[in-house]
Amino acid sequence: MKNQDLHTKDQQFYLPTFKRIPLTFVKGAGSKLWDVEDKEYTDLLAGIAVNNVGHCHPKVVKAIQDQAAELMHISNFFVSPAQVGLSELLVKISGLDRVFFTNSGAESVEGAIKIARRYAHSKGKGGKIISMQNSFHGRTLATIATGQPKYQEGFGPMPSGFVQVPFNDLEAIRKEIDEEVAAIILEPIQGEGGIIPSDSNYLQSLKLLCEEHDIVLIFDEIQSGIGRTGQWFAKDLYGVQPDIMTLAKGLGGGMPIGAFLCNEKIASSIQYGDHGTTFGGNPMATAAALATLKVIVDENLRQAAKQKGEWLKAKLNKLKNKFPVIQKVRGEGLMLGIVLEVPAIDVMQKLLKAGFITNATAGNVLRIVPPLNIGYDALQNFLNAFELVLIQQENEIHEQS
């Protein structure tokens, strides 16, 4: 079948929640994807920062195949070697004390909010959650209550107990602090909001503020974690340890799995039956995650993300000096945002036509989150294509003026 045929069928049967591009991918390897018509694409989106070790990494594929042949699901009344191994490894690399496995990022954030409120209530405090403007924590009712108003429209009333303040503004947080505040949640680097890093002093001061008022500090590392920024987690760039951290996306190498971790202070308030999941942390997902983390270690992909990110950022800044349509390049490692003077979707579509998958977010930001093991040759090919698109874009601007 053709791309358009499958797109038409999809529109007939699937709930119309996505503005899908009429492309059907059937094969992936590393940073490459092939559509149903056998056209090759270079993937600089990685399933929205999911395929951190690339598509179909042989070691991850083998781990999934081996586990599927032995045991796929047992429920959380029992444990599996893969779940125990992954729990131990995540605690070790995060510096936190306890982990709970989920199926998605939104579910991880929901769980983080629950246990933060449980801790606050155990201390006689309220359950108010402070989040940041321009943030994105998921699509459930509680997570859109922490997020941008455009995602809340038509789904009210919103759950109570949530308030938003400007990002990177400590004084705005101070004004909201009272005995009702249970937790503060933020992304160390805002993803969907346009790849906006936190100010270092802001995060360090926020940590001290939370300690002073016994407020739970939650970092959403769903997009910025698992080696993406050149560290295991973006928190490590800032030297700030949260009380709770949420994960998903890159954790499973493509398999659906999420997690939230917490310190012993938070864990001490949790009792049997306070939270649960049927599928979270099942043998299949945890085996894939273990293999993914091992690949990141064995192939030095954190260092690769740092080095490739610095190289790519320098190249993009050279293009910025040449093309005024680029306003700014920001981000860390291989989590980069190119801020444009024009709608990013126009540039994204031109790049897609040339065989390069990127993403438009926050209106005018081109998001670049490729596999951590993408080759320099693929990145250079992208830069060459991007320059041609920028030339075309500038010609169009001159023609309109």
Structure characterization notes:
- This protein is an alpha/beta fold.
- It has helices at residues 3-13, 46-49, 58-70, 81-94, 105-122, 141-145, 170-176, 200-213, 235-238, 264-267, 283-298, 301-322, 344-353, 376-400, and strands spanning 25-29, 32-35, 40-43, 98-102, 128-132, 162-165, 181-186, 189-190, 196-197, 216-220, 244-247, 258-262, 326-332, 335-340, 356-357, 359-361, 365-368.
- It folds into two domains: 3-57 and 300-400, Aspartate Aminotransferase, domain 1 (Alpha-Beta Complex), CATH 3.90.1150; 58-298, 3-Layer(aba) Sandwich (Aspartate Aminotransferase, domain 2).
- It has a seven-stranded mixed sheet with strand order 4-12-11-10-7-5-6, with helices on both faces. A four-stranded mixed sheet has the order 1-2-3-15.
- Strand 13 (326-332) and strand 14 (335-340) form a beta hairpin.
- The relative contact order is 0.15.
- The mean pLDDT is 97.
